[in-house]
């Protein structure tokens, strides 16, 4: 009899926990799944809106608020396709004409800044040009339970646009389609371990499945001050954080927070302290990918650096809304400021 009562109690507890997980907030889900991991500020800042407010905001055709949220740059996802003229033009100084011949012959010169660089460029006292480290994509995180009630598929574009009251002929509609297309193509064309996380819960689950531990360091670039679009920065300190597998999540342009998360093989991760010409202080996260053999050989990194895939590690900075997850056993240095 006692065994039967105990068994019934266990079943009840399991059912309670299961049902509780289905309705708990994204923040609590993080704390349950990653109990030793501090939630980055960039996540906390966008967990504050209630889903009721967001639902009303998006479906109210008279509102003037953002229906799709945009960041300034998405360099972290430009390694999978052939570099476009617009992407190259964005990082180059003014050139009289921009055509395919120019791209092939002169692209190594006249850069306003280089979004990709080599590990040797992470040197103390080195001066670099770089745009704002604040990406300014303010898309809110919604719970998995809520976002799973909304389609996320190219086949359902009309339904998605209708849900968010987005004009099918608008730039926002084009952005919605481009982001979903990017996420769906990832599943087919690329061999990296990757996923588009449409909720904080799915981001947490993917990190656990990819890194194989819940003892994880989650860090982002930190910016003190409002940076202009482009300025000179002087590197003051460089510290290696990790050397091994990590997972990086890049925030995409969408109607709510969607992140492209990927595990790109062996990497080195650095914390880079620098100061801008205007006094802005930045503790930037830089990731150096040791294996670039799966990247598009005509992608922007190789156009900028004039190297071939798989021949040398390629590095890039993360803006403040991009998150790197590192197994704590790999973390060799990091100080919370």
TrEMBL record:
<dbReference type="InterPro" id="IPR044816">
    <property type="entry name" value="BURP"/>
</dbReference>
<dbReference type="InterPro" id="IPR004873">
    <property type="entry name" value="BURP_dom"/>
</dbReference>
<dbReference type="Pfam" id="PF03181">
    <property type="entry name" value="BURP"/>
</dbReference>
<protein>
    <submittedName>
        <fullName>BURP domain-containing protein 6</fullName>
    </submittedName>
</protein>
């Amino acid at each position: 009899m006692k065994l039967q009562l105990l068994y019934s109690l266990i079943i009840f507890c399991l059912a309670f926990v299961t049902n509780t997980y289905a309705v708990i907030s994204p923040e609590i889900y993080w704390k349950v799944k990653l109990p030793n991991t501090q939630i980055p500020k960039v996540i906390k800042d966008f967990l504050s809106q209630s889903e009721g407010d967001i639902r009303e905001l998006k479906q109210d055709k008279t509102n003037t608020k953002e229906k799709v949220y945009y960041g300034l740059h998405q360099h972290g996802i430009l390694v999978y396709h052939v570099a476009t003229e617009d992407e190259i033009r964005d990082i180059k100084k003014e050139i009289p004409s921009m055509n395919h011949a120019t791209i092939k012959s002169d692209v190594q010169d006249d850069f306003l800044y280089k979004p990709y660089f080599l590990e040797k460029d992470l040197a103390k006292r080195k001066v670099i040009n770089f745009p704002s480290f604040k990406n300014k994509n303010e898309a809110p995180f919604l719970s998995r339970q809520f976002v799973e009630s909304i389609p996320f598929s190219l086949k359902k574009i009309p339904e998605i646009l209708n849900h968010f009251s987005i004009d099918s002929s608008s730039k926002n509609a084009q952005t919605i389609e481009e982001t979903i297309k990017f996420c769906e193509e990832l599943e087919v064309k690329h061999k990296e371990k990757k996923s588009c996380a449409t909720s904080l819960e799915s981001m947490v689950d993917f990190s656990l499945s990819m890194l194989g531990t819940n003892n994880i360091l989650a860090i982002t670039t930190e910016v003190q001050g409002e940076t202009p679009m482009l300025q000179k920065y002087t590197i003051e300190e460089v510290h290696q954080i990790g050397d091994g597998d990590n997972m990086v999540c890049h925030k995409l342009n969408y109607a709510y927070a969607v992140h492209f998360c990927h595990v790109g093989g062996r990497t080195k991760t650095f914390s880079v302290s620098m100061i801008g010409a205007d006094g802005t202080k930045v503790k930037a996260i830089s990731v150096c990918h040791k294996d670039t053999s799966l990247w598009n050989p005509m992608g922007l990194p190789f156009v900028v650096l004039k190297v071939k895939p798989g021949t040398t590690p390629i590095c890039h900075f993360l803006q403040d809304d991009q998150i790197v997850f590192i197994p704590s056993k790999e973390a060799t240095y990091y100080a919370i400021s």
